[in-house]
Amino acid sequence: MNMTMQLPSAEAVKAEILEKYPAKVAKKRSKSMVVNDPGAIPQVQANVRTVPGIITQRGCCYAGCKGVVLGPTRDIVNITHGPIGCGFYSWLTRRNQTNPGDVGPNGENFMMYCFSTDMQDENIVFGGANKLRAAIQEAYDIFHPKAIAVFATCPVGLIGDDIHAVTREMKEKFGDCNVFAFSCEGYKGVSQSAGHHIANNQIFKHVIGRGHTRPEGKYVMNLLGEYNIGGDAFELERLLNKCGITLNATFSGNSSIVAFENAHMADLNVVMCHRSINYVADMIEKKYGIPWFKVNFIGAEATAKSLRKIAQYFGDKDLIERVEKVIAEECETVKAAADEIRPRTEGKLAMLFVGGSRAHHYQDLFRELGMKTMAAGYEFAHRDDYEGRRVLPTIQADADSRNIEELHVEPDPSEYQPRKTDAEMQVLSNEGYEFNDYNGMMTEMEKGTLVVDDISHYEMEKLIETYHPNVFCAGIKEKYCVQKMGVPLKQLHSYDYGGPYAGFRGAVNFYHDIDRMVNAKVWKLVHPPWKDDPQITAEYETA
Ligand code: CFM
Asked: Helical H runs in 66-146?
């Protein structure tokens, strides 16, 4: 059945949405809303400033650095340097889980704490460096952690506290604690994406390469861009272990600083979330010679494909066989669940507007349920996440992107060691391996579907009114407005209270949750107040 034929055309909907905007805004937004053609991927405007006044889903640079990339590491004391309002948000609000093992009385899991320098007016006027120094000392005296990280909030950049000088000084003073800082002021860059890049740079400079312990195991790899929301990383570790593959570090779900320090001892990096961690993957390859490729563990088919890719990379016959056995075994439950649920979900519509990678990955799960993704987009991804990395050379740097440091990385004189010879790499690429690559979301979306970057609240409402999707995927900011429109919203950041959704067992969990959501009768009974009492409307005075 070609569902596109029966749905309103994406071009018409786009035109209708743009009509409401003032001319200048319409011109700008039209470049971020494109009708997809997987055969001739159109250009999408992405990673540009949101028009002031538009309600965006985006977060800030500090959120991307402290909250997203560093937050999930349990044994770093993460101190927010700033007023306590920002400190509140340094309390992890994502559902990252961690397994500290048997921590005992001296155990190291600081994720449930919220460390802030609590800057006051006086510190803003006369400088906050002394307060920061005291906070680092206090954290060291109480916890004796292996590492302390400092994160700048907006006022720190405005008044010019030299957080890097302070952390250098304290690191020298302690001798047994790695102290480093992130200039990730909220205003840097146009979204949290800038914070990812800053986090990647500093982890690479201050942490990766400091250790020299390779974990036991024949096949050792790192999993990059997996943050253990709802236990995803636990599930993937179970699966990889079952296959006989050793996971050294996950960046950064369920992670510890020691694993980061040893990241360069692995033989392969695989990348889940390309947006947040591609910089580290590239830099490790350049400095240490570890190749990386993109994987996706969201969706049963994608999981099987990714596992096979990893096994083929290591190239051991026993491993390849074991992986096939694991896939066959795990897929039995997946198939049973899909066979039962798919008749109830087939032909239904989904829309996904989230982050910088999940709006792409989760389309695989919907495909497995026979559901169509009519519209999708990221909040803060770049053109390469939409169109594929082949467009990288054509992306123009602007004032905002130039703000973020690009590290110049050279092969390490003693530790650079290519894991495969050129000939071996050639064989793998003949077999279809795309190293250092990502094809983006649009190659996998149907023709005539709508791709919208940094969607506004108004655009979201219009899409829902026009297409009446059976499920809308976004976050907490959108959840209740959308549900009042009679459409269930699945949070793809926190998973609501669900998960894990990664791997085979995760797929089964997702099938069940979506089945319950799209087939509940309750949505038809929703009667929002504005149905009886419409909002006041106004028009611009033109005379
Ligand atoms: Fe990567 Fe993420 Fe995402 Fe992201 Fe995020 Fe997230 Fe996300 Mo929320 S790192 S880009 S900044 S997969 S917190 S775990 S869910 S927006 S799609």
From this structure: 84-88, 121-126, 129-143
Nearest by Cα to 89 from 157, 175, 140, 153: 153
Report residue 474 as tokens. 């976004």
Task: Tell me phi and psi for residue 473, to 5 degrees.
Answer: -110, 125
Mean pLDDT of 224-247: 98
The predicted pLDDT at position 94 comes to 84
Residue closest via CA to ligand 1's atom 9 equals 276
User: Does any ligand 1 atom lie closer than 6 A to the CB of residue 360?
Assistant: no
Ligand 1 centroid–CA 379 distance in Å is 10
Pick the closest to residue 148 from 166, 129, 124 (CA basis).
166
Give the span between the Cα atoms of 52 and 48, in whole angstroms.
12
- pTM of the predicted model as reported, rounded to 2 decimal places: 0.96
Residue-wise pLDDT for 193-231, tens only, equals 999 999 999 999 999 999 999 999 999 999 999 999 999
**Joined tokens for residue 194:** 């800038």
Structure token pair of residue 517: 């959501």
CA 440 to chain centre: 14
C-alpha distance across the termini of the chain, in Å? 52
Contacts 24+ apart (CB under 8 A), 50-53: 50/190, 50/191, 50/454, 51/25
| Span from the CA of 491 to the centroid of ligand 1 (angstroms) | 12
> What are the backbone dihedrals phi and psi of residue 149, each rounded to the nearest 5 degrees, phi first?
-120, 145
Give 378 Cα–ligand 1 centroid separation in angstroms: 10
Compute the distance between CA of residue 520 and CA of residue 516 in angstroms, rounded to an integer: 6
Which three-class secondary structure state does DSSP give residue 79?
strand
> For residue 345, how many other CB atoms are within 10 A of its CB?
22
Please write the tens of the pLDDT for every residue from 490-508: 999 999 999 999 999 999 9
382 in contact with ligand 1, CB cutoff 6 A: no
Buried/exposed code over 442-471 (b: 16+ C-beta within 10 A; e: otherwise): bebbeebbbbbbbbbeebbebbbebbebbb
